[in-house]
Amino acid sequence: MNGTEAKRRYRTVFLSDLHLGTRGCRADFVAQFLRSVECERLYLVGDIVDGWRLRKSWYWDAEHDEVIRLVLRMARAGTEVTYIPGNHDEMFRAWLGLEFAGIKLAKEAVHRTADGRRLLVIHGDEFDSVVRYAKFIAHLGDWAYDAALAANRWFNAARRRFGYPYWSLSQWLKRQVKGAVAAIDRFEVALAQEARRRGLDGVVCGHIHHAEMREVQGVLYMNDGDWVESCTALVEHADGRFELVDWARENRLSFFRGEAPPVPQAA
């Protein structure tokens, strides 16, 4: 999107796994996306703030502040904002049911689409057996993921010097490990089955950093991805049609160079 385009207008926007508070968070892209859209409803589907990382070391810059400011501005302007905490921001689960500055905290939600379908909106860590039953392993996996991202930054800095495009080490590792691929499939099936058990038409979730929109066992499964590598958002149009917006692809050159994206002008 260039600076002369009008804002994109959606009925609903779903964002998850920003991981504010980590160096891997592309807060600049999140802020650019939020400045570029208007919506009636905004769902923050977990792991917006990374409490796990902030407890170990503090990292928070002006772009992280800007993301919070933009969300608050949307709430003040009349957007219905629902924050569903995930496992990395589980500290907010102590305040479920409360509302702060126009932002409602909820364990989960049922979203009714423009065409009448009902969707379960949930972060999804409850359906990850590692997070539920082996939290030490989950933290170890989180450390390994951070290490892969750090190695990724150095590796791609070298690739850019030689004129090569961006390449994701962490995503490559996921594709190589059969257990990771199987775990993603189990996760998708478990969420779809839960939505069907409740008599709902589909599910919107995050957690596994794997953007997807497909039918699973007759249920619509949608994962809105993350804003560490993929930088994707799930959006609902006025007619109830859903779309995965790949913000990194739309701003490919800036993303791969690690640069800030162009700043859109006000409509």
Task: Provide structural commentary.
With 267 residues, this protein is of the alpha/beta class. Helices cover 37% and strands 21% of the residues. It contains nine helices and twelve strands. The protein has a seven-stranded mixed beta sheet. α1 runs parallel beside α3. The longest helix is centred in the middle third of the chain and has 27 residues. It is globular, with a radius of gyration of 18 Å. The two termini are 12 Å apart. About 4% of the residues have low confidence.
- Beta-strand percent range: 15-25%
Mean pLDDT: 83
Structural class: alpha/beta
Q: Can you count the helices?
A: 9
The largest β sheet comes out as: 7 strands, mixed
Work out the number of β strands: 12
Widest sheet: strand ordering: 4-5-3-2-1-11-12
Helix content: 25-40%
Distance, first to last CA: 12 Å
Flag low-confidence runs. Answer: 130-141
Radius of gyration, in angstroms, nearest whole number = 18 Å
- Series of secondary-structure elements, N-terminal to C-terminal: EHEHHEEEEEHHHHEEEEEHH
Q: Say what oligomer this is.
A: single chain
Shape: globular
Mind sketching the topology for me?
Blueprint: E1 8-15, H1 27-35, E2 37-44, H2 51-56, H3 62-76, E3 80-83, E4 99-100, E5 103-105, E6 109-112, E7 118-121, H4 129-133, H5 135-161, H6 169-176, H7 178-197, E8 202-205, E9 212-216, E10 219-223, E11 232-236, E12 242-246, H8 247-250, H9 252-257
Parallel strand pairs: 1-2, 2-3, 3-5, 7-8, 8-10
Antiparallel strand pairs: 1-11, 4-5, 6-7, 9-10, 11-12
